[in-house]
Amino acid sequence: MSFESLGLAPFLLRALAEQGYETPTPIQQQAIPLALAGHDLLAGAQTGTGKTAAFGLPLLQHLGTAPQKVSGPRKPRALVLAPTRELATQVHDSLRGYSKYLRIPSAVVYGGVGMGNQLDALRRGVDLVIACPGRLIDHIERRSIDLSGIEILVLDEADRMLDMGFLPSIKRILAKLPKQNRQTLLFSATFPESIKQLAMEFMRNPREVQVTPQNTVAETIAHRVHPVDAARKRELLLHLLGQDTRVQTLVFAKTKHGSDKLATHLEKAGIRAAAIHGNKSQSQRLRALGDFKSGKVNVLVATDIAARGIDIDQLPRVINYDLPMVAEDYVHRIGRTGRNGANGEALSLVSQDDAKLLRQIVRLLGRDMEIRDLPGFEPQVPIRWGNSAPGKAEQPGGQRPPRKPGGGRGRRPHGGGEGQAHAHAGNRAGNRGGNGRGNRAPAAATHAQQRNQQRNGGGPRRDANR
Ligand SMILES: Nc1ncnc2c1ncn2[C@@H]1O[C@H](COP(=O)(O)OP(=O)(O)OP(=O)(O)O)[C@@H](O)[C@H]1O
Ligand SMILES: [Mg+2]
User: Fold this and answer.
1) Residue 53 lies in a domain
2) What is the pLDDT of residues 206-217, one digit of tens each?
3) What pLDDT score was predicted for residue 376?
4) Nearest bound ligand to CA 189?
5) Distances in whole angstroms, Cα of residue 172 to Cα of each of 141, 161, 200, 216
């Protein structure tokens, strides 16, 4: 299938060809014709499979070919909401690239920078706005933006945009948008059922596109768990990074402070590292990501700020130093590698403290995960992985015996080495065939549990991107 056959306009086809896009990806093949036909969409596809173009191309085609619906002065006609400044900028850059041959005036709107440039752009008049919710609300309050002419709304990372951290802001923004004649496009690699139901409240008869079973990891990512005592995680991280310090590695840590400490520790050990998180200034954030993309630093230590959407060309490895609090974020974090057909490796350092989070991740994925002890780092504290009943004697190291090869989807090399096991989904149904189907209910329940955990533990996630 070609991009031509999807019904895209020549001004887009020319730009795509120049960027080396030859064949539309499956999500592009399925979503673009439906979006061009004006349908609302709930679209799910794995990380790194081209969702930006899947919503961006029909959106640009609409702006480039259909006249503005409301009369009067130029008002924004399309709005894309994204959870982080870095993602908003990236989506803006991608859409500018796709629309190179038909200039569509646009603005990117996010916090942490002065208002001046954004106000100037909005005053001049734009068709397209890419925004983080917090700063967009600031503009709404100052009346520097009028959203009454929006014809297309896109929520990129839609499940994140509708989780409880962002939902109040999204509701305020929705209240300013036209209800009639608006097309709404929701895209993500993960879609909890609860979020889909919520989305129905502001969508019109949406079509659902799900390219691969939902909440699944891209086939190109080899991911596994390395058990370790909590006190030895740093040592293990240094060991893994030290094997070849040139391998670009994105390391996820739980907290802003923890990210800083870890980056400093790595620097002291002679590894070129930077940290990115919500307490850094926008210029520091930009520099850290830029230095990592250019290879000036080899390790970027990040909070979940870098978990979603960020496209780093050919990133070979992601390491979860801490597991994410929300299982869906595991899929997004490790999805920074193995993008667009490239291979990638994702490792998670898991101690007894993380066992519960790991169980939730395994349940979400609906299939086993490979667990591999690393010689010299075997945990002293046994880890309770999965469905072993409390009090029941566990295997040495707390692990279950290896499963027979072929027990899962068979897409990852299991190596057959010593110390391998699998973390189980915790419900037998989830392990059957391991394709994630038939495991929706537990996944939804897990999401609710995780939200509670957030509320009770670290508090609701805040929009660090106003
Ligand atoms: N049809 C295509 N041909 C070649 N490259 C493509 C095509 N579509 C997208 N790409 C490239 O693939 C990479 C991943 O695309 P994109 O960032 O849109 O993925 P995504 O599905 O949004 O991932 P995530 O879930 O992480 O946000 C980008 O570098 C993009 O330029
Ligand atoms: Mg994306």
Assistant:
1) yes
2) 999 999 988 999
3) 96
4) 1
5) 11, 13, 17, 32
